[in-house]
Structure formats: C-alpha cells, structure tokens
Amino acid sequence: MNRLYHMPLSPFCRKVRLVLAEKRIEVELVEERYWERDADFMRRNPAGKVPVLRMDGRTMAESQAICEFLDEVYPEPKLLPGGPVERCEARRLVCWFDDKFHHEVTSKLLYERVNKKVTKSGYPDSRNVKAGAAAIKFHIDYMGWLLDQRRWLAGDVMTLADFAAAAHLSCLDYISDVDWNRNAAVKDWYAKIKSRPAFRNILADQVPGFPPPRHYANLDF
Amino acid sequence: MNRLYHMPLSPFCRKVRLVLAEKRIEVELVEERYWERDADFMRRNPAGKVPVLRMDGRTMAESQAICEFLDEVYPEPKLLPGGPVERCEARRLVCWFDDKFHHEVTSKLLYERVNKKVTKSGYPDSRNVKAGAAAIKFHIDYMGWLLDQRRWLAGDVMTLADFAAAAHLSCLDYISDVDWNRNAAVKDWYAKIKSRPAFRNILADQVPGFPPPRHYANLDF
C-alpha cells in the first residue's frame, strides 16, 4: 500500500493529497509529528519535513518533486499540461504560492495560530499575524487579476498551480482567515475546485483543539 | 537578444546562469536592484525577485520554472535526465538547496554579511551568522555522504541538483564561508564543476565593496 506521511494542515501535504486524489491513486495517510524528529522518519527524509511518499518500495520527499513525479508516471489527468511556456507559467505560480505566499501569509497566520500551539513552540506573535492578514489581501487581489484573464490560475486548464493555491487557502480557511467576499472571481474559482471529488478528503480533516468553522466544508460558502 | 535580470551573488540567478551557459544559450546580463521595486521591473515580475528571463518576447520568473523550461526547450545537455525516479531525486535535491540550505545557510551568512549592506537594510545579526556557520557543516557532511555513493549529487550524471548546490556554495565561497577541507569528496566535486566552461562567467563576478578571496576563481583551491 502506498503511504503518505503528512500533517492535515500542511499546505504542501494537501497539494500532494489533491494530486493523488485527482489521479485516483490510493494512499494510506499517516500523521507524522515531524518536529519530534523520530529516527525512522529522519532516515526517510533527512530534511525532517512532510510530505514524504512511500510508493512501490521507494521513498520520495519534497512536495514539488513528488508532484512532478506523479504527473510524469500517472498522466491522467495531466496537471502540467500544454507546451513548455504554459508549464513554465504553471510552475511559476506553484513557486508563487509555495514560496512567496507561504512566506508572507501561511507562515504568518497558520503557523503562528496553529503550528506553534501544536508543536508547543511558543505563542502567536501578533506582529506576524497582522502582517499576514494584510498580505493575504494583496495575494487575493493578484489571484483575482489573473482570474479576470483566465479560467484557471495558470491558463485555461486546471493545473498544479490551482492545487498549490487551493492547498494554502484551504488551510487558512480552516482557521477562518480568508475573506471570500473580497473578490468574486477568486470565490468562484475556489467553489469550483472545492467541489471536485479530490477535495472531499481535505474538507473532512479535523485537527484536535481546532474545530473548523461551519463554512469550511460547505460547498455553498 | 535574450536578457537575464539578475544580481551577481544571488544563488537562484547563478543556477539559471549555469544552465544557460551549459546549454550555450547567449544572454545579456542586466543587474536589477530588485529591492528598489522599480515599476517596470515589478510589471515583469510582480513577485519582485530575480532572476527574470526575457526570451523571444516572453518574460519568465522563478528560477525553478525557468530551469525546467530551458531543459525542455534546449535539451542539450539534459540536466534532468534519466527516468521519473532519477528526476524526482534531482528535483528533491534542488529543493534541498533552494529551500533548506537557503534558509539555514545562505540567508544566514550571505544575506547577513552582504545583502544587508548592499540593500542598506541593517547590520549583520551575529546570532544568524553563528547559526549559518554551524549549519553549513551539516550540509557539507550530507553532500559528502551522497557523494560517497554517487559520482554527482543526484546520481551518476550531472543534474540541476549539482548546479543548485554549486550556485549556493559559490556565493558563500565568494565571502570565504566554505571550509573546503571539511570533506574531500565535496572538494573534488566542486573542483569538477568549477572547471566547467559554464562556470567561468561566475568566477569573474566582482561585487563592489566585497573583493573575492584569491582562491575564489582559482581552479586549484
């Protein structure tokens, strides 16, 4: 059985889970408290991070490397489609969310509010929370600007860029940190991706001590 | 003419420069003081970062998206070769250096010592410098462990992983922050990659106010 070592509110793990589900690859989910640096886990991934995917006797780490692997080996449906230019744009946006959005928003809101408590590593820094709450507005506006010109974030077909963005936003939505009324195009886009069967598993996540708001799993939010 | 907006001591720009040179793609280098957020530059890349590549009328951003594009369109020589498993390992290590190594080492040494001065954004924080100097030892040991089993970092052929690693290490070597005596296999690997024609341009870099040490450009270091 394939096995994904993950944490429910990790956007990087959610991106991989969405790709696995979209491609109908069955996988057993194993929660890995990576910050405890268990020796077996550190052997699997010396970077000490989730996600880690065990598949056919192989161990793979780093969400982007895993997603590229899955898209090459399980091409149905292709999530990096089109020509090299279109793939470049999709990969640019994956980096946008996994690097810039992660740094400016996810790490400032989710990590302060949730991860610090779960990993017992301190209390939320209100300056970070404030900075994250300001930055997410710019990012939603940028997504809206893209979606005014395109059906999906990277072009006219759904790509890994949409999954990367949805992975981050769904984690933040779990703690009610997304203002869906800010931009109608972004809300429509999220409604579309949220209603995919691949998203069901993510909408069922429950983190002890952090109950999700009622709208989190609601397709009509 | 192709044009790369870059900064000389950016490891992400150096990775792209190495790929361009290895594939013999001519490009005009334009230094971009990205932190000044010039309006034209922000239009080219709203993320406000270098590298940005202008090629055939197109603008591309994010170093990994650019490198994947170049490897797809200019396949000689392939820098993500082999099967999906080998490519996954090469991409894992690119992420290792561009994410983990960057966070634990490059940002703690280079950014404290050089970028803060160049961008006039403060003075080096000695705690960061100390943490970076400790962390680079672990990373060199990990590279040595990989190179005990493989000719190149990701396997038996040179890949983008070697360029990502060499891009970071060459920036740190410019400020004498690499102890080449720590691991013989790592030193041999760097000597091999440093002697490639693609590296010449990088060894000629000069940053005003930061003269490189004599060994920096020396192939027998």
TrEMBL record, chains A, B:
Record text on subunit structure and interactions: Homodimer.
InterPro entries the record matches: Glutathione-S-Trfase_C-like (IPR010987), Glutathione-S-Trfase_C_sf (IPR036282), Glutathione_S-Trfase (IPR040079), Glutathione_S-Trfase_N (IPR004045), Thioredoxin-like_sf (IPR036249)
A molecular-function term among this protein's GO annotations: glutathione transferase activity
Protein name: Glutathione S-transferase
Domain of life: Bacteria
GO biological process: glutathione metabolic process
Keywords: Transferase
Residue span, GST N-terminal domain: 1-78
Cited PANTHER family: GLUTATHIONE S TRANSFERASE D10, ISOFORM A-RELATED
GST C-terminal domain mapped to chain residues: 83-215
Record's keyword annotation contains Thylakoid: no
